[in-house]
Structure formats: C-alpha cells, structure tokens
Amino acid sequence: MTQVRDTASRGAVYSAAARHMHWVTAAAVLAMIPAGLVMTYRGNTLNIWDGLTNAMYSSHKLLGFLVLWLVAGRLAYRLLKGAPPDEPTLLWWQKAGSHLVHWLLYGLLLVVPLLGWIGVSLYPSLKLFGLFSLPAIATPNQDLAGQVLEIHGTLAIVMGLLACAHIGAALYHHLIRKDGVLRRMLPGLK
Ligand code: HEM
Ligand code: HEM
C-alpha cells in the first residue's frame, strides 16, 4: 500500500497552471531585484533623473503591481487546490525546511510589492510613463514613504537571498541527490 502511494507520489508534478505561475513570477522577481538596485543607484546615488531612470521607475512600479495580482491569484489557487505530495525520498527536515522556505517566499512575494505600492501612494509618486496613475492606497506622508520604501528594498533583498537558497536546493536535488524534485516544477510536462 505504502509502495503504491510512494510510486504515485514519486511521479507527481505540479499542475500546468501552478508551473506557469511559478516561472512567470520567478522570472519577474529575478529580473526586478537587480533592475531595482540599478534604478535606485542611478536615481538616489548618482542623482541622474533622465528619461532612462524615469522609465526604469515606471516599469518597476508597473511590473511589480502586476506581480502583486499574479501572486494573489497564485496564492488563492495554491490554497484551494493544494500541491502534489512531497517527493517520497525526502527526509523529514528537508520537507519541513522546503515548506518553510516556500511559505516565506509566498509571504514576501505579497508583502514586498504591497509595501512598494503603499510607499509610492505615501510619497506620492503614482504616475507611470507620464501617462496614467496607479490607484492610491494611502494618504500622502513623505517621511513615512521613505521608511516604507526602505523596508520594501530590504525585504526585496531578503527575498532574493531566500530565492538563491531555494534555487541552490533545487540544483542540489537535481545534480547531487538526482531525485525528482526539480522535475515536479519543470515547464513543458504533460
Ligand atoms: C515583487 C515585486 C518587487 C520587487 C522584487 C521589488 C524590488 C525592489 C528593489 C530591489 C529595490 C531597490 C531597493 C534599494 O535600492 O534599496 C526597489 C525599489 C523601489 N521599488 Fe520595488 N520591488 C517590487 C515591487 C514594487 C512595486 C509594486 C512598487 C510600486 C508600485 C515598487 C516601488 C519601488 C520604488 C519607488 C523603489 C525606489 C525606492 C527608493 O528610491 O528608495 N516596487 N524595489
Ligand atoms: C531558477 C530558479 C528556480 C528554480 C529552479 C525553482 C525550482 C522550484 C521547484 C523544483 C519547486 C518545487 C519544490 C517541491 O516540489 O517541493 C519550486 C517551488 C516553489 N518556488 Fe521555485 N524555483 C526557482 C525560482 C523561484 C523564485 C525566484 C521564487 C520566488 C521568489 C520561487 C518560489 C517558489 C515557491 C513559492 C514554491 C512553492 C510552490 C508551491 O508549493 O505552491 N521559485 N521551485
């Protein structure tokens, strides 16, 4: 009986929808963290406020806003549909550790863009490409905006470090343990 269950869970993979949402989110976040650092370096450190810096800020805010809604949908889907059973060869602490990191990543994926949105509402700096504005979710308060955006940046870096550990773990499973963990999330599976 356990054998049957183990064989079944060994082949279990995330649904196509979960895999698509994972890779779109991962690509967006892995691009946005270095781009966010370059953007603030140009603006705040070098004090260059030209068309490129402004376009970087607008793109950052727009992409981050879209990521927020994608993650909200992804989280609702995850809570409603669940995930495939854990890879059966994992030890208890590997299962506990991976669940902890996944839920921390989900939390940060929501909190980081939300703080960005609150920060630009407080500043206020809601206009994108000089064309349209994001809706405001807080009344202006520039001092508070500075603090909120600082926490936003710090937590984005924490998320980046956690994502590096997560990617390292996926590679460890694939290259050293040679188990099925990475396969569960690969795109293009039937
Ligand atoms: C997953 C989504 C997001 C990620 C990974 C992210 C990441 C970052 C990073 C790494 C920085 C640079 C921090 C620093 O230099 O200390 C930054 C700055 C910034 N982000 Fe985001 N961000 C996201 C979403 C958003 C959203 C949705 C908004 C607003 C709608 C936003 C607004 C800003 C602003 C205004 C800054 C500049 C802060 C400053 O000049 O001090 N971000 N972000
Ligand atoms: C090259 C980059 C990445 C690889 C190879 C990768 C790989 C994986 C794998 C194999 C899983 C399934 C783990 C399991 O079955 O237990 C997974 C799940 C997950 N990944 Fe990634 N990942 C990457 C980037 C990211 C990034 C950048 C984030 C977010 C910042 C992220 C967030 C998550 C989350 C939240 C889960 C849990 C999914 C769930 O159970 O609903 N991943 N990832």
Question: What descriptors fit this protein?
Answer:
two-stranded antiparallel sheet, Fumarate Reductase Cytochrome B subunit, 190 residues, 2 strands, binds protoporphyrin IX containing FE, single chain, mainly alpha
Give a structural overview.
A hairpin with a 3-residue loop joins strand 1 and strand 2 (132-133). It is elongated and about 50 Å long. A two-stranded antiparallel sheet has the order 1-2. Helix 2 crosses helix 5 (142-177), helix 3 crosses helix 4 and helix 4 (92-122) packs antiparallel against helix 5. It is built from 5 helices and 2 strands, in the order ααααββα. By secondary structure, the protein is mainly alpha-helical. The chain is 72% helix and 2% strand. The chain starts with a helix and ends in a 13-residue tail after the last helix. It has helices spanning 2-10, 16-45, 51-81, 92-122, 142-177, and strands spanning 127-128, 132-133. 14% of the residues are buried. The chain has a single domain (2-185), classed as Fumarate Reductase Cytochrome B subunit (Up-down Bundle). Bound molecules: protoporphyrin IX containing FE (2 copies). One protoporphyrin IX containing FE is lined by residues 29, 32-33, 36-37, 40, 43-44, 60-61, 64-65, 67-68, 112-113, 116-117, 119-120, 134, 149, 152-153, 156.
